[in-house]
Structures are given as structure tokens and as C-alpha cells.
Amino acid sequence: MPRKDPEERRQYQREYIRRTWLRHLEHSKEAMRRWRANNPEKRLARDRAYKQRHPEQVRAGHKRYREKYPEKRRTLWQRRRARELGAPGNFTSAEWMQLLVEYEHRCAYCGCEGPLQADHRVPLSRGGSNDITNILPACGLCNQRKGAMNETEFRKRLRDHARNHRKIDDEAAG
Predict the structure, then answer these.
(1) 140 near 115, Cβ under 8 Å?
(2) Does domain 67-173 have CATH number 2.40.40.10?
(3) pLDDT tens, 106-118?
(4) Which of 107, 154, 105, 100 is nearest to 126 (CA)?
(5) CA 51, CA 54: separation in Å to the nearest integer?
(6) Which of 46, 48, 106, 173 is a good FRET partner for 88, with 20 to 30 A between their CA atoms?
């Protein structure tokens, strides 16, 4: 029986279209998944052609991704650097994020907040691995100051530096 009220009829039509559209959308997605799985060469050729025709859009998409996921980009860069140096092991973005949570998003050396970098307890230049067990979150300043020292050497340097500052402060006050 047709609906006599025009608003009720419109609402029914909207709901019908929405249901039909959702079914069509799922069907289309599944068909596209099958096509991609069955035609990998055609898909790669199509993707390459798109990238050549629309380089600005591709660059803009890459930029949006880097801005949206800076931690993932940093992790990928770190893994590439370790690979180039021939360091064994690697860590994932999820492991890095878990490490940040453990350190409450603070530098392992000075405790400051802010953008953190993956610092190697035993530096790659001294044969350290790129495994998550050899990684600490460090602020850029601490990571730069640490250089090629291992963790214990750097912590000793920080303690000595703090001790010297206390002596100077005590002499100035006394």
C-alpha cells in the first residue's frame, strides 16, 4: 500500500536508497578486491600511470600521510638507517609507540616532553643492534649530545655535569 503522507514517502525512499547503496558499495568493494588479486600487473601499471599523470596529487597525499603519522615515518627512517649500517634487528612502529607510553612520552635522560627520537643505548656505530631492547626515547638535544657514547657513559657524563653545576652554585652562594 503506497504511503499517502509525502514526508513519510520521502523518508521511506531515502531509507530504501541508503540500504540499496550500502549493498552496492559492499558488492563493489568485493569485486574490486577480486580484480586486484587476479590482475596484479594491470593494477601496478594503472597505479604507475596515475602517478605519472597526477604527480602533484600524489605528492600532496604523501605529505598528508607524513604529517598525520610522524612517528611511523620516524620509525621507517630509523629502520632504513640501521639497514644501511648493517645493524641486526629492527623494531616496529607499534613497539616504538609502546616504548613511548612506558616512558610517558618523556626523554629517558632529562625527562623533558616534546618530539622524541629513537636513541640507541649502544650506538649503531659501536656495533649496537636496532632491536627495541636497545632503544630509548630521547629528546633531540640529549640524542645529539650523547653522540657515539653508550647509555652508561652518557648517564655518567650527565651526573658529572650536574655535580659540577651544584659545586659552582654552592661556591656562588657561599
Answers:
(1) yes
(2) no
(3) 999 999 998 898 9
(4) 154
(5) 5
(6) 106
